[in-house]
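Run log, item B.
One chain of 421 residues. Sequence copied directly from the ordering sheet:
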Amino acid sequence: MTQLASIASTPATRAAPYDLEGLRAQFPILGLRIGDAPLAYLDNGASSQMPQPVIDRLVHYQRAEHANIHRGVHYLSETATAAFEGARRKVQRFLNAAEECEIIFTRGTTDALNLVMHGFGRAYIGEGDEIIVSTLEHHSNIVPWQMLCQERGCHLRVIPCNDRGELLLEAYAELLGPRTRLVAITHVSNALGSISPLREVIDLAHARGVPVLVDGAQAVAHIPVDVQALDCDFYCFSGHKLYGPTGIGVLYGKAALLEKMQPYQGGGDMILSVSFEKTIYNVIPHKFEAGTPPIAAAIGLGAAIDFVTGVGIERAADWEATLLDYATEQLSQLPGVRLVGTAQHKASVLSFVLAGVHPHDVGTVLNEAGVAVRTGHHCAQPVMQRFGLPATVRASFALYNRLDEVDQLVGGLQRVARLFA
């Protein structure tokens, strides 16, 4: 997004680029108090909150549209089907996918990654072949490939990063070889906020005919994503990090690849016909959507996309960059704080440790001050090992956060320092 820089102005002189308070008013949960303190929700990397329009859309479906889809000719089934497939079209436009059939609804990013491992990996990756991931990956983009390696005798190759948490492109180029069959890489590190140089990664892979899968879970709410411009072969994300419900995610895949892949779940709408002798699978995307899908959650995701589009992803990104720069400046001035992950290009994640205090203790005291952060290894243990740490504290910002919530975080950390002095 933006290069980290020192900020000369103060919070009082820096106006939000949009009606921040009006925006916050659409999130009922932000009015909560934790004890005597107002809630400062800085755990958006784990799950963002839902605005009232998304909540209302979910309630409306349950009250006035609920029925199973694709199977009925009655009013409710047709209405629910239209809303569900309408959500698919919204995702297509949001990602700028070429075709509606390239959008597959999943349970989340993890489910989407496993779908690719089963449907593509098991078909096209075999003994002696290589899969490239990066040091920055979430466990969800490591473990499925390790499973495949154990099953098929293929090998995992890892792109290293420097001390700032930036991937080393020269090392990546050297990893690409005649046995490379897939590159699976995060768009934004959930643990550090580093933005991967996707354009370069994809170009280098495609020059060798290697497809690229992108884990976009931490990106879609913070960075404009155009899958055609990126030219990635697969892209996946989760609804609950995009101001939508849990239990819903998306796998984008180029139609030509999806057509060749086999489904890894059977039953329901993923078939055209079944006999005891043979099953004929449905067309994409339905081939990969076995059983009754998360109908309400998909409709809610569509509403969340409407909300984000209405705010403007670029405007939200600009504001989050302001929050990140201000938080970086303020925490850098606190004695004993070490920032972990200082890449030049970052999304709105700030990971850090406080000398002499375990991150879990930091999180506990911050909670007493009303500040919600994430502590631990963030399901990214290889990243933690790279930096010689068991865990960090992670503050992650969203389009509704305020500068005074950063101040609340700083005040809480000062309290932690006093308590553990």
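Observations after the first pass:
- The radius of gyration is 22 Å.
- The longest strand covers residues 180-186.
Flagged for discussion on Thursday.
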